[in-house]
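Lab notebook: predicted structure, single chain.

Context: the supervisor wants predicted structures on file for every construct in the current expression panel, including those that have not yet been purified. This is the next one on the list. No modifications to the sequence; it matches the entry in the shared construct table.
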Amino acid sequence: MDLVLDGVRWTYGFELGADRVEAEWLHSCPRGRRQVWLDRDASRAKVYDWPGNRVKDRAGLERRTRPNALLLSTAGTDNHPQLTPLFHWFRRNLWLINPEDEREQREAFTTREPTGSRARRINELLRVADLGITGAEVVQEGTGPATVKRTHRSASGDVAFDWTRESFGTRSWFALLGPLLLALDEGAVLLVDELDASLHPRFAAEVVRLFHDPQANPRGAQLVFTSHDPSVLSTPSGGRLLEPGQVWLTEKDEEGATDLYPLTAASPGEDEDLMKSCLAGAFGAVPSLLEGQIARRLLWPETCSAVERRSARDRRCPGVGRQRLGSRSGASSFDGVRRPASVPESDAAFLQGLHEAVPGVALEDQSRPMRVLGVADRDA
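Prediction complete. Output recorded below exactly as produced.
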């Protein structure tokens, strides 16, 4: 990972194994010249290398760092004079949001905000989301924790809704607002797993636009997110919400390992619709699943399995090379991107094989894309 601290660019990374830290490295670039501060490699007889001897208390750091711990964490715990600021940068500036974890804590955090400095912006973001919400107010009942009641539009005027009656999508949007605004205000890096979870695609797109807008994001906060929704690649008008250099894709190989590679490796055209090409499988990173395949597997599991294996062998082509992020040398082992056959061709080939294996399967006119119409003999 690259970051700038007190005007100096730093690169930090590590690799984890099942029971130990396999590698860890730290570089700095003062005045544009690269300096290696730490090079840790568990496969070497001498695990730690300190080129230039720039780091103080090197022997002590080696002695106190467990094989399954990061040296940077040890340095931060020990209040190391050189490395502690770097440790605190990660602790203070990388905020992770997982839709399955800590949603109640994020809701509680945002609940405190309608009475604070971000109250106006939270209310505006609730209104503009077209959820029917006209405002929010903090209600203190007895000695329990404060709650927020949302007011909704109705034919008879605004009506207060209890929080438990809100939809999961509304609650997810509300829970995101507090951390999102705090990140913008602090210039932090917000990490969101499954940004589109329980949110309408347009909500997710608007979150991305917030971080792109220099007026809404004057402190240069960054958003790093994962998503299964390719619509975040494009705007409704057909423009690009994200450029190829901002997008990385993942795909499982035949051994079940996940390959990570940049969209730029596919060399998309300057005017190419990224969303359509992604859905068509032009960049890889789509499930190996044909239209209607799940239903066919329920009907003819053994036959379909054999036909699928044969079809996969017929259309197999070179896969995606594995990319190791932030390697110590900076080199990439990426060797090209897979561009699978189009879905209609693959589907037609599969269905033709299924038709040959199960004569009772009727197919559409051969001049059009084929699909299963029915089974002539249920015992076939």
